[in-house]
Design a protein that fits this description.
heterodimer, A: alpha+beta, 4 strands, about 30% helix, globular, B: mainly alpha, 434 Repressor (Amino-terminal Domain), 3 domains
Chain lengths: ~110, ~180
């Protein structure tokens, strides 16, 4: 998992066998999954430095699950989308990246 | 107690080898995905079973230099073994991602030797290099930012990593 995450951190946008978002899923546009064999870490991507570094991306991984079938359990992605918006998540990210709070809300997604 | 300032690949040669083999797998899989080549077809090209391909790609420790050459060849690529210095002798920051070297080589005009390199203009990607053209189309260039260390000790343990992107191409294309 660490190796796969570092492939993402290095700037790669694939392969999808290691990680991917769900850009074509209208209900879960912010979802992200990090993969290793049957192991899955679901989370979301955001831009926590909208003023000083708008293109900086943060990957927040929230949920562990095992995937044995072909299709992603949408319930996991539903939970990710909920967590993305709750105050505790925003506050937690804001502790590391104060710009994420207050102004610049439009950049969160 | 583990030295938290060191990258995890500093723990052992095996860890370092795993990481760079994993980077190699990412390059192969990116190529296969970009060209739409399935694992069955790829397995046939390199003369092994699809199961073996999955086994090896899921466990990069199974690679050796010979099999790396074979897998790269099957994907229509070549392999270079590169030694480099990055002013990080204790490996506090981990290895450089393999795709960085590939992109640098392509930006230098894909020189075949040091003579071509010395005369190559920057960012001169060969127009007839369809593989690189295709790569840039599907995977816009990005640059890394090494901030995993402070995140790992932050107040929220679910935050794993962040990265910098060039321009807004990735930002716009993926999240908006």
């Amino acid at each position: 998992m660490r190796s796969n995450m570092e492939v993402w951190v290095a700037g790669n946008n694939g392969p999808t066998t290691k990680f991917h978002g769900f850009p074509n899923d209208a209900d879960h546009p912010h979802g992200f999954v990090l993969k290793h064999r049957e192991h899955r870490l679901y989370g979301f991507l955001c831009h926590p430095r909208p003023k000083s570094s708008p293109s900086f991306q943060l990957c927040v991984l929230c949920i562990y699950a095992e995937k044995w079938g072909r299709y992603t359990d949408k319930a996991e992605l539903d939970r990710v989308e909920e967590w993305l918006l709750i105050s505790a998540t925003v506050q937690a990210i804001g502790r590391l990246y104060p710009e994420y709070l207050g102004e610049g809300v439009k950049w969160k997604m | 107690m583990e030295n938290v300032k060191q990258h995890w690949t500093a723990r052992s040669v095996d860890d370092f080898a795993y990481r760079i083999a994993s980077d190699f797998v990412a390059q192969i899989e990116n190529k296969l995905e970009g060209s739409g080549t399935g694992r069955t077809k790829f397995a046939k090209a390199i003369g092994v079973t699809p199961g073996r391909v999955s086994q090896v790609l899921n466990n990069p420790t199974l690679f050796n230099l010979k099999s790396m050459v074979s897998y790269a060849d099957g994907a229509g690529m070549k392999v270079a073994v590169i030694a480099y210095e990055d002013d990080d002798p204790k490996n506090n920051r981990g290895p450089i991602n393999a795709q960085v070297f590939t992109n640098c080589w392509e930006r230098a005009g894909c020189p075949r030797d040091l003579f071509e390199l010395s005369g190559a203009p920057a960012h001169a990607i060969r127009q007839n290099d369809f593989s690189s053209q295709s790569y840039y189309r599907h995977y816009p260039l990005t640059t890394p930012i090494a901030n995993t260390e402070n995140l790992a000790h932050g107040p929220i343990d679910r935050v794993v990593a962040g990265r910098q992107t060039i321009g807004n191409n990735v930002l716009t294309g993926r999240t908006q």
